[in-house]
């Protein structure tokens, strides 16, 4: 079984802020000047990637509007996250309140050899990105692979059984009609997309074992 692990990722500035270890783009045996050149090269590559990303986002606008919007987006380029493995977390911790209910476990869903290979690739990537960790837990939920419009697959966990025993938060959702009325009369609209939003809220440490999932490979 694998248990989801959400944690705040450090901000890189040449060394890991928490462990004070050299980062992968440093060569331990290299002179200090060589280390600086490699950091600058990395920063230059990132700036070029951000420049290209912003340009691509503005292609649908007339050139005059592109010239107006581009400087503003470039000024706030730190908001663009181009590295898939870096995910910003909130300071809020999600609690899974199940009271005194005994742990729930399920068997993994059957799947083809091709699906098992795809699933293993998802697992390896999430382990590499420190989003999950191996664990032994009395809780276990099955994994579902959902096909996306582009043909790739989305890794999902079927937590419906746990949802049934979890205490719900009573919080009102925004009324659609009121929301639409607020948008009326405006010409320009902004849209923000939170990358991997389900990974951006850390789970309370004592509740992480409840997020354990199980697959055929014995995780």
From TrEMBL:
It holds the Pfam family RVT_1. This is Reverse transcriptase domain-containing protein. The lineage of its organism: Eukaryota, Metazoa, Spiralia, Gnathifera, Rotifera. Residues 127-219 form the Reverse transcriptase domain.
